[in-house]
Structure formats: structure tokens, C-alpha cells
Design a protein that fits this description.
The chain is mostly beta strands. It folds into 6 domains: 125 residues, Immunoglobulins (Immunoglobulin-like, Sandwich); 114 residues, no CATH class; 110 residues; 108 residues, Immunoglobulin-like, CATH 2.60.40.10; 97 residues; 196 residues, Sandwich (Immunoglobulin-like), CATH 2.60.40. 9% of the residues lie in helices and 48% in strands. It starts with a helix and ends with a helix.
Length: 783
């Protein structure tokens, strides 16, 4: 808006130095009961706007003492306001009924003065009373009807006033001022005018005006209320009679008082002038008058105490102003342009109307803003409300824990407008926002989130900032840590950023706590510093679970468990499943199933296909094949498996055969060109198989260790050959557990022990028949 106003006046200046129109809201001219009012908003840069009065004699600047002498009053409260009495110096008056005003408004636009011509014609809305007194902010004015009837009686005091008047030898009009205790010598009106007084005569009224603080005025107290009085008697001696007019103005100079209940009170003596009890008061702000009952209905109070009238105005009265400012704190002033009319009747029923214009200002009152912590823990977010912010105060910045919120208007801060001409701001910051200070409270065994908030506020058009601070804190349960997990071709990596509450939790793989010793034992790669824990789990190491095994690949899953250190209860876990590929693998499960993906490149003759392979039992063929590989999955005690019992382990062994035709009952002839045999073994700790020979169902406490052996084929004609391995694939043993049915996948080894296989015994068959003693086992297995 300021740009619009400024641009408008610049265009005016370029044109003719004046304008016929002004933008709406910039200028307001209005005729009131006894004056014209011009209001100009403070929307211009540079010095405040000023006024000039214009008449036939020229242009007259309305400033200072000249304004008080000539009936002008200029005030600055939220806007610049000029009040000009209908009897002001340069007004064109016609029969006391039509008053024409001409002014120049001078504004400063970008360092250049621009003049605008104003004019207004007014007619009083109320008839003139015989005597009217105006107590303006900078002058006193009284006007009386020029034709008055004689009073009903003459007092002794009137004769004492008349004596010096009668003794004056001149017939010119003179004035004599009376002080509280003495009468001053008469002086010519021309002399009085030079001393700052104004005397004027219209067609029907005599006007006398005096600025406050003249040497011939005096101050007194009436019922404890300060009053300024100017008592002038204008007279002229004509032969043996005297024409004399008594002009007296008395104005309450009460500055107003205020209380903690939200009221501004102004007082005036009830009997500044002789009157009866028939007194009427109208009151309002900014020139708008209301009858006393109406004013009292909307919160005003009018009371009489010891012949003194007390007018109480509520701080929130419509038409008042409040102004904020910063001075070692946030303060506010309430400003009221009081307008009051008091109507009196004297003993002759002659009416006197006294109009008061007073600017009442409270002392600086501290303005208290309030903050409310509206945080709801379930939302995991701070919600803080700053309220009761005056309408002329705006939020300039917000700092949280020393960091400025750069997106205060949208992401963090929301402005809330209230119906009582105030507003507020809602601050929302998530608990996990980087600006929040997060510490673990050992005393509360919880995470402590803290915000130290510093609001920076400024008054509109002000320079000094005001800082309002507060701190909020929230406690939340210490959350168990959660790992970030990523897949790679060779395994899975887990990362954990350390938190102050980490000491509450134990991290484990299965039932074993993760330590550097465990990582080394199992082949994990672990680094742990003050910032984070990084664990890389290579494929085929202990702890993996494998599913959906095909020749195209398989899914490997690794789980990290977080337990409460004090109770060992599982709090959370991080499970990561990745897709892997492998040329060969072997798995030996706890429930007695061997799963093998074998490379048969050298075990199948040239031109042959892996589809024509089988295990020791000719009915056990592959479940899936491609050009060079075959997938077998079968129970350990089936498909012609052979069993070897050692002191600490039991070994299940089978072999992949390629056949073209039958040679004997359970034997196949290999095709010419096969250069190796493929033997698979699953080795289980004997201690974990304590139920093996008492139940038909295979059940192991641990996964077995699987081995795939690629060897040269046996020499024809030899029985019980000794097998020398060329390459081997072996699985590692998984962590000990009772009920988890897990499959382990393989790692490559370079050395495998020689194994002697009994040619005419079938250990799986013996197991199926329910062998229950070690001697029976030894009959089926060659030790």
C-alpha cells in the first residue's frame, strides 16, 4: 500500500503540483458539530504531513503557537489529524451557518514535497447555544451570542468589575483580565492580540480564544482537579454608559489516571460555571458523541464524587488506540482522543455547552505474552503456542537451540489470528528433527528431548527487537536401536548409529550376544567406534537362513536381535533378506534334509545331460537341471545314503551317478568320458542327535556341515576303493538352537579327509527299520 500511495503522489507532483483525487483511505475530511476534521494516514515516507490554511490574504502555515491562537489543533495518533474550529482564523463564515475551509496538505514523497489543495464546506448540525466553550488540546475558545438579555439581578462583584472600566477615559474597545486574586489594568484589543489572544465578531457571535499557559491566565484546583482559567472582560465606554461582555473560559487540565482493572479515568469539576442541577453529559472517542446511558451500556462509567464527574473508559473501547514499543521489554500505551460535551443551565435558564477534547495516554504498561506447551507425546512432536501478541507486533525470527528456523512461515510456524485484535504463533518441531537436543536421562531411563526457543518480535515501523524465550522438554521411552541393512553380492551389511541409550540393549545373533570375539569366530567383519557399529556378514557364515533354492538363485535371510539387557526380552529385530546366486551349494538341515546344487560339468560325459543323473537310489533323480548343474533335495536317510558314525560326529553320504543302461541290480555303468565323481556329505555332531535312534523322525540341535567332493572315478575292477578328493564344498555349522529348522549354505574348502564306503550295506535302510543300538549301527557302517 505504501508503494501505491507514494506512486500516486509522485504522479501528482509531475503533473501540476496538486491532485484532484487521493486514494481511498489516505484522506478523510468530515464536518463535526463545531469543527472540521481532516485525517491523513501515516503512509508516507519522510517527515509527517503538514497543513496550510488558505484565504484571500494568502497561505498560512498551521504550526505551533499560530495554530493555538487561530483555532487549529494537530495531533498524531496512528494518523495525522487536523481539527479546525468553525471560528478559526481563515474560515469564510456566512451568517454563522455556513463555514468554508481551504487548506493545503503538504506531504513528502521520496524527498520531494508535494502539495494537495483541500476544501470543505460545513454547516453545524446543532443550533448554537447562547454560550459555548471549547477546551481543545492546545487552546480555549468561548463564543457568546451577541444579543443577550440582561441578567435577572446584579451582584456586588459586578460593580467592583465595573469601577475600573468606567474610570477608563477611552471609548475604544478594551479588555481587562482578572486573575484569581487581582484585576489587571485594561488594555486595548490590539495589544491583547499581539500577546496571543484572539477577539472576533461574526454576524451573531463574539469569539474569544486563548492558548494555554498565557501570562494572564491562572491555574487553580477545584475539588482536587487542576483547572486553567482565563477571565476576560471586554468593554467600551460610550458617554454615560458602558458596554461590557464577560468572557470566561475554565477547562479541566486533568491528565487522566489508570488502574489495573483496564480503565482510563478522566475528571472534571461539575461546577466550573454557574449552573443548576440540570446537567447533561455526552461522551465518546474521536469526535463521536453518545448519550450517557448509551455509553454506560457499552462499558463506560460516569460517576460523581464530591461535585466531581469521573469518566472511566475501558481500554478496549472502540475508537481508542494502543501502541506497542520496546524499551528493555515489551510495553504498550493506550491512547484515547476523548470528546466530551457538558450542557449546563444557569439560574436564568441560559444554556452553556462545554466541549472537551483531551488526548489521554496511559503510562507504559508491560505487555505480557504467554506461551503454552501443547505437546502431545503420542504425536512425537513439540507443539508450542505463543499467544496474546498485539496486532502491531510481528514475529521476525525464531531460534531453536541456537539455530534459526529459516522456513518459519510454513514448515515450523503457523500464525493464528484471534478475535480480540491479537494473534499468536504455533511452533511445531518433530522430536527427531536435527535441531532438537536429544539426551538420555539415566534418572528417568528415558530419552529427553529439549527445545530452547527464542522468539524475535518487532513492532511494526519499529527498530528495536523484543526477545521472548522459553524452554520445553519431553520424555519418551528409550527406543531400541534399529539397524540399516543393505545387500551385496557377497553378503549383507548392517549399520547402527549409536544413541546415548545403547547401553540398555544387548545385540545378539540368535541367542549369542554379538561381540568382537563372536564376530571373529564366525567370520563376520565388524567395526565399532563412538559414532556407529558396522557389521558385514559374508554369505555362508553362521546365522543365515536360506529359502526358495533354485538353480537361478536363493534367498538368504539374516536377523539381528535386540534384547533388553536387564531382562533379556526381545525388544526388536532387524531382518534382511537378499537374493543370491551360486554355482554350487549344499545344505544340511536340522530336520534331516540334504539340499545340493552340484556342478556336473566333469561328471557327465560329453554329449550327456544332468537330467540323466540320480543318487545312490536310482529312483532319486534331480528336482531341477540346466545345462551343467542339477538340484537334489532328499532326506538324509533315503536315496541310498550311507552313514558313518564317529566318536563325535555322524556323517551321511551320497553320490550323484550318471547312467546309460543297467549293469547289475543296483549299479549303473558310467558313460565314457566322465572324469570325476560328485560325492555329498552332511556331518552332524553326535551330541546333538541324542534322539536319532529312539525316534523315526530325524531331529538335530544344529545344522549339519555339508561337503561336496569332486574326485576322480575309481579304477575298474577294484573293490572298496580309496577316494582322493580333488575339490570340495563345505558348509559351516550354524549357531546352536533347539527348534529352529534352518538350512546352511556352503563355503569352499581345499582339503577333505578320505572316506571309506561300505559297498554292501545301506545305513539309511537300517535307520528306517528302527535300529536303536550302537552295535546295530556299527553293523551298517564301516568305522
Amino acid at each position: 500500500m505504501l508503494l501505491c500511495y507514494s506512486l500516486f503522489f509522485v504522479l501528482c507532483a509531475w503533473a501540476t503540483g496538486g491532485c484532484d483525487l487521493l486514494p481511498d483511505g489516505v484522506l478523510h475530511i468530515e464536518c463535526r458539530d463545531r469543527y472540521v476534521m481532516i485525517a491523513v494516514k501515516l503512509s508516507f515516507t519522510g517527515p509527517e504531513p503538514r497543513f496550510e490554511a488558505v484565504d484571500r490574504t494568502g497561505v498560512h502555515s498551521i504550526t505551533g503557537q499560530y495554530a493555538a491562537k487561530c483555532g487549529y489543533s494537530v495531533s498524531v495518533v496512528n494518523h495525522v489529524e487536523l481539527r479546525a474550529s468553525y471560528f478559526s482564523c481563515h474560515t469564510d463564515i456566512n451568517d454563522d451557518k455556513v463555514f468554508k475551509f481551504n487548506f493545503n496538505l503538504i506531504v513528502n514523497v521520496e524527498g520531494k514535497e508535494v502539495s494537495y489543495a483541500l476544501d470543505k464546506t460545513c454547516s453545524p448540525s446543532l443550533p448554537w447555544s447562547p454560550r459555548e466553550v471549547t477546551c481543545e488540546t492546545n487552546y480555549m475558545e468561548v463564543s457568546v451570542r451577541s444579543e443577550l438579555t440582561c441578567p435577572s439581578g446584579t451582584r456586588i462583584d459586578d460593580w467592583s468589575t465595573l469601577k475600573p472600566v468606567y474610570s477608563a477615559v477611552t471609548s475604544d474597545w478594551q479588555v481587562m483580565f482578572q486573575m484569581a486574586e487581582e484585576q489587571l489594568p485594561p488594555m486595548n484589543l490590539s495589544v491583547a492580540r499581539r500577546r496571543g489572544y484572539l477577539f472576533d465578531l461574526t454576524e451573531g457571535r463574539l469569539i474569544f480564544r486563548a492558548p494555554y499557559g498565557q501570562p494572564d491566565s491562572y491555574s487553580t484546583e477545584v475539588n482536587g482537579v487542576p483547572v486553567e482559567v482565563v477571565h476576560a472582560t471586554v468593554f467600551s465606554r460610550q458617554s454615560w454608559f458602558v458596554i461590557m461582555v464577560d468572557l470566561v473560559t475554565a477547562c479541566s487540565m486533568h491528565q487522566g489516571s489508570y488502574d489495573d482493572d483496564g480503565y482510563m479515568t478522566w475528571a472534571l469539576p461539575e461546577a466550573l460555571y454557574t449552573n443548576t442541577d440540570d446537567t447533561k453529559i455526552s461522551i465518546g472517542l474521536s469526535g463521536e458523541l453518545m448519550e450517557q446511558p448509551v455509553a454506560e451500556q457499552i462499558g463506560y462509567a460516569v460517576e460523581k464524587h464530591n461535585a466531581t464527574v469521573h469518566i472511566s473508559i475501558p481500554y478496549n473501547a472502540e475508537g481508542g488506540y494502543r501502541v506497542s514499543f520496546v524499551a528493555d521489554g515489551l510495553y504498550e500505551l493506550y491512547i484515547f482522543n476523548l470528546y466530551l460535551a457538558q450542557t449546563l443551565l444557569d439560574e436564568d435558564r441560559v444554556e452553556t455547552v462545554i466541549r472537551f477534547h483531551r488526548t489521554l495516554v496511559t503510562r507504559p504498561l508491560p505487555r505480557t505474552l504467554f506461551t503454552e506447551n501443547q505437546t502431545v507425546l503420542e504425536e512425537q512432536m513439540f507443539t508450542v503456542y505463543l499467544g496474546d501478541v498485539p496486532e502491531d507486533v510481528e514475529l521476525a525470527a525464531v531460534h531453536v537451540n541456537g539455530q534459526e528456523l529459516t522456513n518459519a512461515s510454513s514448515q515450523y510456524i503457523t500464525k493464528v489470528v484471534q478475535p480480540n485484535n491479537t494473534h499468536g504463533y504455533t511452533l511445531k518441531v518433530p522430536f527427531d528433527d536435527p535441531v532438537v537436543i536429544q539426551e538420555f536421562s539415566k534418572e528417568d531411563a528415558a530419552m529427553q528431548h529439549t527445545l530452547d526457543i527464542n522468539y524475535t518480535l518487532t513492532v511494526v515501523d519499529g527498530n528495536e527487537p523484543y526477545y521472548h524465550t522459553m524452554s520445553v522438554m519431553a520424555l519418551t521411552d528409550a527406543s531400541p536401536p534399529v539397524f540399516d541393512a543393505t545387500c551385496s553380492d557377497s553378503g549383507i551389511s548392517f549399520k547402527l548409529d549409536h544413541q546415548p541409550s545403547d547401553y540398555l540393549w544387548a545385540i545378539s545373533i540368535g541367542s549369542d550376544e554379538l561381540t568382537s570375539e563372536l564376530a571373529t569366530q564366525r567370520g563376520y567383519i565388524m567395526s565399532n567406534d563412538s559414532q556407529s557399529l558396522l557389521l558385514t556378514v559374508p554369505l555362508y557364515t553362521d546365522g543365515y537362513e536360506y529359502k526358495d533354492i533354485t538353480l537361478k538363485g536363493f534367498f538368504g535371510t539374516f536377523e539381528i536381535v535386540v534384547r533388553h539387557r536387564a531382562t533379556s526380552e526381545v525388544q526388536t529385530s532387524t531382518v534382511k533378506t537378499c537374493l543370491f546366486t551360486s554355482t554350487e551349494l549344499i545344505m544340511c538341515s536340522t530336520d534331516g534334509v540334504m539340499t545340493v546344487v552340484a556342478d556336473l560339468t566333469l561328471a557327465v560325459p560329453s554329449g550327456g545331460t544332468p537330467a540323466r543323473t540320480n543318487l545312490g537310489d536310482k529312483h532319486c533323480g534331480p528336482k531341477e537341471v540346466d545345462g551343467t548343474r542339477a538340484l537334489f533335495s532328499f532326506p538324509l536317510n533315503s536315496c541310498g545314503s550311507k552313514v558313518k558314525l564317529g566318536k563325535e560326529n555322524v556323517t551321511y553320504q551320497n553320490e550323484i551317478f550318471y547312467h546309460k543302461e543297467y549293469v547289475g541290480t543296483n549299479e549303473f555303468a558310467s558313460e565314457d568320458g566322465a572324469t570325476e565323481r560328485v560325492i555329498m556329505q552332511c556331518i552332524y555332531p553326535l551330541a546333538g542327535l541324542h534322539r536319532l535312534f529312539s525316534k523315526y523322525k530325524f531331529e538335530s540341535d544344529t545344522d549339519g556341515v555339508g561337503i561336496i567332493i569332486h574326485t576322480a572315478p575309481p579304477t575298474p575292477g577294484l573293490l572298496n576303493p580309496t577316494i582322493g578328493p580333488t575339490t570340495g564344498l563345505q558348509t559351516t555349522r550354524a549357531p546352536s538352537r533347539q527348534t529352529t529348522q534352518t538350512q546352511s549354505t556352503a563355503t569352499f574348502l581345499s582339503n577333505v579327509r578320505y572316506i571309506k564306503v561300505a559297498k554292501h550295506h545301506n545305513p539309511a535302510s537300517s535307520l528306517r527299520k528302527g535300529a536303536e543300538t550302537s552295535s546295530q549301527i556299527k553293523m551298517a557302517i564301516e568305522v
